[in-house]
Design a protein that fits this description.
This protein is of the alpha/beta class. The protein is built from ten helices and 26 strands. It has three domains: 181 residues, FAD/NAD(P)-binding domain, CATH 3.50.50; 119 residues, FAD/NAD(P)-binding domain, CATH 3.50.50.60; 79 residues, 2-Layer Sandwich (Enolase-like, domain 1). It has a five-stranded parallel β-sheet. The chain has a five-stranded parallel β-sheet with strand order 9-16-10-11-12, with helices on one face. The termini are far apart.
């Protein structure tokens, strides 16, 4: 029952938290909604931080989830620039950094993740950057423009999605770029060597230098500024700025101190939640990058650090907080834009979990769909410069049915015809 006397608190004012607050109101909740964020900026979306905004193609105001005045109109109480420092589950209250205690009837933790830090000498130099927050992107945008103007050199530690997107942005400004990656290809742990190699070729053609099979051991500087980077194979690389793009860690400190069940780092980390995004405490929910959720479709516990998970997970958590039946089983989805290549990825296919990568289309021209298969069943699909196919790819994943591999590889065969029940 919708109750005007109840208070729902959301800790974490990112996309997931903002969309949860919006959904509570659209579902008719008339009680207090309190949204707490440790950044001073209003809730914003993160993809542009490594894409359009970082490239200088989008303005700052374009990243916000809602215009600032929306929150007052929706009667959402904002506590911005205030970290939540303590969760008292017995008293059902959250304590903020300034000592304010906020009571809740239901609580949603949307605390997100934070960039992993390099553990090498020299990380305190002024030219060492991370990219997670809007303030990081503002600073890095200026750095890339300066590097491009002055023929400067950016060194990126890590060839994951953030590292590659920043590399593309830096090349767009004209900066020199070197990427140091311990594995054999970019995106090796996400896409495997076959497709990872294609992204490596794309960046190499655009002037990015890769140094595979190595790790940073030291950032060399003088007068507080970066001069070079050394790697564990004895190499030294010139650098005027360094980006640490070695992944993100879920922000679980608040939940851990409160005794909520967690998932260990070896299994992806995060706050353990069920399919309704409920934690081990029935009045506390978790969503977004911090939540390790049981996924009904995939039959495993999964923590997803992507925009679509925040966008869709926030409203799902809101409905669960209101007592509705929720089984959050969205197919994981993300997208990336690098140079003239755009892609969308749907599904879940960890390295070692599939037995074939099948290509449909022309990989040489970068107009194709890659499918990751296990025993003839589609686990994941990535469309590269091929559009309006995500729905069919996700339907194939959901069906869990063996597919005709020859037909799947043939671009002349409509994907819809391969989905059970959709017909030719």
């Amino acid at each position: 029952m919708v109750d005007a006397h109840r208070t729902f608190v959301i800790v974490g004012a990112g996309l997931a938290g903002a969309k949860a607050a919006e959904a509570l109101r659209s579902e008719g909740f008339r009680g207090r909604v309190i949204l707490i964020g440790d950044e001073r900026d209003h809730p914003y979306e993160r993809p542009a931080l490594s894409k359009g905004y970082l490239q200088g193609k989008e303005e700052r105001d374009s990243v916000f989830v809602h215009e600032p005045s929306w929150y007052a109109r929706a009667d959402i109480e904002l506590h911005l620039g205030q970290p939540a420092v303590h969760l008292d589950r017995a008293a059902r209250k959250v304590v903020l950094g300034d000592g304010t205690a906020v009571h809740y009837d239901k609580l949603l933790l949307a605390t997100g993740a934070e960039p992993r830090r390099l553990d090498v000498p020299g990380t305190g130099l002024a030219g060492v950057h991370h990219l997670r927050r809007l303030s990081h992107a503002e600073r890095l945008r200026g750095v890339l423009a300066t590097l491009g103007r002055d023929n400067g050199h950016l060194l990126i530690a890590g060839a994951g999605w953030i590292g590659l997107e920043v590399a593309a942005a830096a090349r767009g400004y004209g900066a020199e770029v070197t990427v140091v990656e311990p594995l054999a290809t970019p995106l090796h742990a996400v896409l495997g060597p076959e497709i990872g190699r294609l992204f490596g070729d794309l960046h190499a053609e655009n002037g990015v230098r890769f140094h595979f099979g190595a790790r940073l051991t030291e950032i060399v500087g003088q007068d507080g500024m970066v001069l070079a980077v050394r790697t564990d194979d004895g190499e030294e690389h010139p650098a005027h700025a360094v980006l640490a793009a070695i992944g993100a860690a879920p922000r679980t400190a608040l939940a851990e101190a409160a005794g909520l069940a967690l998932v260990d780092r070896e299994h992806g980390g995060g706050i353990a939640v069920d399919a309704s995004l409920r934690t081990s405490d029935p009045d506390v929910f978790a969503v977004g990058d911090v939540a390790a959720a049981h996924h009904p479709l995939l039959g495993t516990r999964l923590r997803v650090e992507h925009w679509a998970n925040a966008l869709n997970g926030g409203p799902a958590a809101a409905r669960a907080m209101l007592g509705q039946e929720v089984s959050y089983d969205r197919v994981p989805y993300f997208f990336s834009d690098q140079y003239d290549v755009g892609m969308e990825y749907s599904g879940y296919a960890p390295v070692g979990g599939y037995d074939q990568v099948l290509i449909r289309g022309d990989a040489a021209r970068r107009e194709f769909i890659a499918f990751w298969l296990s025993q003839g069943r589609v686990l994941a699909g990535m469309n590269v410069n091929v559009w309006d196919v995500t729905g069919h790819i996700q339907a194939l994943i959901r069906s869990k049915a063996p597919v005709d591999r020859e037909a799947l590889a043939d671009p002349s065969v409509p994907l819809a015809s391969l989905v059970p029940g959709e017909g030719a």
